[in-house]
Amino acid sequence: MGGPITLIAIYLTIWWTVLFAILPIGVQSRADAGLPNDGSDPGAPVDPKLKRKFITTTWVSAIVFAVLWLVVHFHLVDLSKLPGPHS
Question: Whole-model pTM?
Answer without folding.
Answer: 0.81
